[in-house]
Amino acid sequence: MGYDNFKKEVERILEEKARPLTWKEIKENSTKLKQKAPYHVYVQKLQGDIGLVRFRSGRDKKTVWALRNWFVEGKFKELLPHKVRFTILSSKKDHAIAANAYWELKRIYPFPEKLNLNRWDVIEAEVEDFFPEEDKRPDSIRLKSDGIEHLRTIEDEEERITIAEKISESGEFMHTDAWKGKTLGMTKPRFRCFYFYDSKCQFFCDQNVCVGHDMEVDEEGEAVEIKGDRVYFVLEAVEREGGEFIWEKTRVDWYIKSVISLTDPRQRRLHF
């Protein structure tokens, strides 16, 4: 099924039922949706196109699908989790980029500097607003600044690589409209083909059509240091003037928010 038909069918069912549904329930109400699990790129695009929101609800913590405008109108907020666990990938002055339980990238704030939290710290945070009025980007979440608890720091390099691989995605979102529904992404340069100069980086992604990217690098307290054989770029969409919804545009520019460099212990052992 193509994306447009998928979007229409999911939106129709959610609007007709007017309540959060699991993927199983959505399929049960459709004669067209047959796939066991939806294509993740389609799900990402739905975040921007119809305002799709997914979260775990109830005692059994099943993942449900809902529409953002329901929560903006004050409906079903009691179903949203009070606390969310995040793995920090980039820590900035007043915010952080982190992965949630679905390995989706989220922009979390405020992020008190006094907590001294860094990359690979795992936290559990009380959420003040999943849909902050001051930041309508679908991947932004406002936390309670006094409700952040540090759980552990991931020290094992293999575990770090496993997490990075779960989050990393194809460079398709930099070439097609697969970026819709998000303003954050993480990808790997192809064959370590990248070059840093001044405040920019040139690199090739994994797409056959890629003729190279030339992006600004925002270090903001995080020095770029390439030590390992695994390199990942955390990307953020360039904010436009006027505050319009960036995912409604036909094209978006990206910049490198953070660079993650890891050494695969298995590769290291092969050298001995």
- Total count of strands: 14
Rounded to the nearest angstrom, the radius of gyration is: 19 Å
How many discrete domains? Answer: 3
- Strand portion: 25-35%
Helix content: 10-25%
Helix-strand pattern, N to C? Answer: HEHHEEHEEEEEHEEEEEEH
Mean pLDDT: 85
Task: State the name of the first-level CATH class of the largest domain.
Answer: Mainly Beta
CATH architecture type of the largest domain: Beta Barrel
Say what the CATH topology of the largest domain is: OB fold (Dihydrolipoamide Acetyltransferase, E2P)
How is the largest sheet built, in terms of strand order? Answer: 4-5-6-8-7
Distance between the termini: 49 Å
Low-confidence stretches: 243-247
Number of helices: 6
Shape type: globular
Compact overview of the structure:
With 272 residues, the protein is α+β, with helices and mostly antiparallel strands.
Describe the structure.
There is one protein chain. The radius of gyration is 19 Å and the shape is globular. With 272 residues, the chain is of the alpha+beta class. A five-stranded mixed beta barrel has the order 4-5-6-8-7. A three-stranded antiparallel beta sheet has the order 1-3-2. Strands 9-13-14 form a three-stranded antiparallel beta sheet, with helices on one face. Residues 243-247 have low confidence and may be disordered. The protein is 19% helix and 32% strand.
